[in-house]
Amino acid sequence: MKFLELKIPPVILVLVFILSMLALRQYSPEIGFEYNTRLILFILISVLSALMSLSGVMHFRTAKTTVDPRNPEKSAMLVTNGIYRYTRNPMYLGFVFFLTGFSIFLNSAYSLILVPIFIIYITLFQIIPEEKILLKIFAQEFIKYKNSVRRWL
């Protein structure tokens, strides 16, 4: 399934998963949280998600390297500071947090099941292909970084 590698912009993928979660909601058993609890959790998780993703984008912009995940070969610098000291993929991790919060807000067990599917997809068709390209560009520097910072958390 190499034809899927680096093809779908991750933001579009998140939108597809949001729509899928909405569709599954009507068939799903409820998680069991009250509305106010779900809303507060969703807001808190969304804020964390946004901060994480935006921090990643800001560090890329500061380093003057590409933010477009479909073209990692245009990377001008390996960013390893800031949030990148804790996770190699803060933008994708932010998406995971957002989808988790959204499924909690929907109160839908089936929607929550889509989160690991998102993680698997983004890992196989986005992150691993990106890492292969980064290895070619940055060689030993990327190996050292990869060995010291986890892919997710």
Layout: helices, strands, pairs:
Layout: H1 10-25, H2 35-62, H3 90-106, H4 109-148
Helix pairs in contact: 1-3, 1-4, 2-3, 3-4
Describe this structure in words.
The chain is globular, with a radius of gyration of 17 Å. It has four helices and no strands. It has one domain (34-148). Helices cover 66% and strands 0% of the residues. The mean pLDDT is 95. With 153 residues, it is mainly alpha-helical. It starts with 9 loop residues before the first helix and ends in a 5-residue tail after the last helix. Pfam families: PEMT. The chain crosses the membrane at residues 6-27, 39-60, 91-124. It is a multi-pass membrane protein.
List keywords for this structure.
transmembrane, mainly alpha, 153 residues, 4 helices, membrane, transmembrane helix, Phopholipid_MeTrfase
Instruction: Give the structural class.
Output: mainly alpha
Order of helices and strands: HHHH
List low-confidence stretches. none
Helical region count? 4
Percentage of residues assigned to helices: 55-70%
Biggest sheet character: none
Report the C-alpha radius of gyration, rounded: 17 Å
Return the domain count. 1
Average per-residue pLDDT, rounded, comes to: 95
Which outline best applies?
globular
Strand content: under 5%
Number of strands: 0
Distance between the termini: 26 Å
Membrane topology: Multi-pass membrane protein
Pfam family, one: PEMT
InterPro entries: Phopholipid_MeTrfase
Keywords: Membrane, Transmembrane, Transmembrane helix
